[in-house]
Amino acid sequence: MEIKEQVFAFSASLHLCVNVFDVPEVWHDMTPVQHTIDTAYVVGPVHCYSAELAGELVLFDTGPPTEEAKQYLRHNLDLPRLKHVIITHCHIDHYGLANWLEQQTNAIVYLPFRDHLKIVRHNERLERMYDLLIQIGFEPAFLERFRINMEDGTVFPPLPENFKIIEEGLPEELGLTVLPCPGHSQSDLVLIGADWAVTGDVMLRGIFQTPLLDIDLLTEQRFRNYAAYCESLTKLATLRDKQILPGHRESIDSVDNCLLFYVRKLLERATRISKLPLSMSAVEIVFKLFKDDFTRPFVSYLKASEVIFLRDFLAEPELLQKVLSDIGLFSQVAENFNRAVSS
Ligand SMILES: [Zn+2]
Fold this sequence. Notes:
Blueprint: E1 4-6, E2 16-17, E3 26-27, E4 33-37, E5 46-53, E6 56-60, H1 67-76, E7 82-86, H2 92-95, H3 98-104, E8 108-111, H4 113-120, H5 122-135, H6 140-150, E9 164-165, E10 177-180, E11 189-192, E12 196-200, E13 215-216, E14 221-222, H7 225-236, E15 243-246, H8 255-274, H9 282-290, H10 297-315, H11 317-326, H12 334-342
Parallel strand pairs: 6-7, 7-8, 8-9, 12-15
Antiparallel strand pairs: 1-4, 2-3, 4-5, 5-6, 10-11, 11-12, 13-14
Residues 43, 46, 91, 93-94, 201, 247-248 line the site of zinc ion.
């Protein structure tokens, strides 16, 4: 597997100012360095980022739990100097080596609050998820296969034993602002630095990242990805003047274009779903529309997750319309929007 490294623009340079009075060193933070590591997942390679913040080495996301990724980090990061490992969201391609880094380095691992909840209530979460899957129309035999898939180590890598919760406070000197932008998952966090933002999977060029069906452990109900996504849109629009550092694919030169791509896909797919009777379950739609044969349980789960997200939009389209109007993007998708809600 080929592992590449791309170094992001070093436009902001690093200055080290020491004067005759031996004043402490003053670090001017630079744009994080992008590291690209292959994964075995359909999404392709993942990016993690390293940065010197206040003179301390910080890693955002870790890559997947593979030998290649370990080799990559060993060769390209000064691991003995690593102080902080900050995770955007606990999907395997983004935090797969958090446990390994905890063992190999003295770094502190920071995880999103929502992922911490899922970790401490892991079994309960899975049981509730399985109930949810039955409710939306999956057969018990499917569930058996899904359960094996979820518990064979390919979805959940080993966890770090000690970690801190990001929302409870990152060290102030790092100068990071945390912006929760759930939708794809419950936990997605954006980490904002001086003029850049590490955005994980909340904005990806040319990808409609599936809003994943999950249980909200705070309400013990289904997590409302659609409502969360609408709220997150307002926050993502505030990143327009930042350099976006995404978790996959190429860089993002326009926040608006990236959001519009996603919204257009949403509307296009919702138009197809809107023609089907409400009496059809999400699983029946997956079978009919995607010709799914249910041989890959995790893929069927992803498709069903998408159908539920789209149906939530169709039940309450005005939510999205209002947010898009507020951030000045509605007119660019008005036609697609009307097509989706009028059919
Ligand atoms: Zn990802």
